[in-house]
Design brief:
The chain has helices at about 1-35, 40, 60-70, 120-130, 135-165, 180-205, 205-215, 230-240, 295, 305-335, and strands at about 75-80, 90-95, 100-105, 110-115, 245-250, 260-265, 270, 280-285. The protein is an alpha+beta fold and about 325 residues long. Among the domains are: about 50-120, Nuclear Transport Factor 2, Chain: A (Roll), CATH 3.10.450; about 215-285, Nuclear Transport Factor 2, Chain: A (Roll), CATH 3.10.450.
């Protein structure tokens, strides 16, 4: 009797928690399915996509010099190098107003400029997925929803095994009902969905986690900024220090007390002393568990089929939400009368 009462309470807890999280998880799952194709959508049209591919792009030093020449009142903050022949280069600038500048990688000509403070639709969708559109409370709510998914799966897993233990001899139906499909989907795909949601919850606060658990290096005795090594020399040193992936972007320090940061296509980071050209620290996806959060959550680590795994998990979560809320409404509605 006590076991039956406990199972009943756990079932209602599973139901009410699912209903409470239905709306935020619906937004997160739907936006996550779209964001699984972020790169395809981002580089689908100009100015991100070039009219004709460039096989021999200019070096990063030439691109940076062109940007500084055209925008002398701004400081170059980040330079995004083209990762495919049909992709343009980009730069993020700070100054009188933040700018996002698009550069032709073959001629170093300025293709377009945008206000860096005005995100486009795809950027807004990513912020919606993270909850950032509502600021810090939204990020906390999105992360709590991700943690709630883990509790939903654990509760459903326990209920599923309890049910199997009590109906072992029940004859299988030729056409299972909606809740039977709900249970099977939860048992088969609930684990990957919960892990993906947990990774997203942690990724929302990856910056503070890395600062705490795997902090970047600092330069304790900075030299004069006039002694900064030329950018081509720093890039050569960065590429020489890590050959496993192409260089993707360069973060320019605001002053000599900050290291140069180089990010590679596989998610690795290099931190370099700009005065001496020495490697301060190398962070690869496997150097610390916090570095695995984004490659795993984005599906980039499994390879070219990773985004389809995300789509499958997103669709499974939408089905579990829909079928669970539909079942819950059928139970709650008579009690509300």
């Amino acid at each position: 009797m006590n076991a039956a009462i406990s199972s009943r309470k756990l079932w209602f807890g599973h139901l009410y928690l699912g209903i409470a999280l239905a709306l935020p998880l619906l937004i997160i799952a739907a936006s996550g399915i779209v964001l699984s194709f972020y790169d395809d959508l981002r580089y689908a049209s100009p100015p991100y996509r070039l009219a004709e591919p460039v096989r021999q792009p200019r070096d990063a030093g030439a691109l940076a010099e062109s940007i500084r020449r055209h925008f002398p009142r701004h400081r170059l903050e980040v330079l995004f190098l083209p990762t495919a022949p049909e992709h343009s280069a980009r730069a993020r600038l700070t100054g009188p107003e933040p700018l996002l500048v698009f550069i032709h990688p073959g001629t170093a000509a300025i293709l377009a400029t945008r206000n860096g403070a005005d995100p486009d639709g795809l950027d807004w969708l990513r912020e919606l997925h993270r909850g950032s559109v509502l600021g810090l409370p939204g990020k906390i709510a999105a992360s709590m929803a991700g943690l709630g998914t883990l509790f939903l799966w654990l509760m459903g897993l326990w209920l599923g095994f309890r049910r199997r233990a009590t109906v072992k001899r029940q004859r299988a139906k030729l056409f299972p009902g909606l809740m039977a499909i709900h249970r099977q989907t939860g048992l088969l795909l609930g684990g990957p969905v919960a892990v993906l949601a947990l990774l997203g919850a942690l990724l929302n606060f990856a910056g503070p986690l890395m600062q705490w658990l795997d902090p970047p290096p600092t330069i304790t005795e900075p030299a004069s900024t006039r002694q900064m090594l030329p950018l081509p020399g720093l890039i050569d040193a960065a590429v020489e220090g890590y050959r496993n992936a192409p260089l993707e972007r360069i973060y320019f320090p605001a002053d000599a007390s900050q290291p140069w940061r180089f990010r590679f296509l596989d998610g690795s980071w290099e931190f370099m002393d700009g005065q001496r050209g020495t490697l301060l620290k190398l962070k690869t996806p496997f150097s610390h568990w916090t570095m695995l959060l984004y490659p795993l959550h984005s599906g980039k680590l499994p390879g070219i089929w990773g985004h389809w795994l995300l789509v499958l998990c997103g669709i499974a979560l939408l089905f579990l939400l829909g079928s669970g809320v539909q079942r819950g409404w059928r139970i709650i509605k008579p009690r509300c009368r």
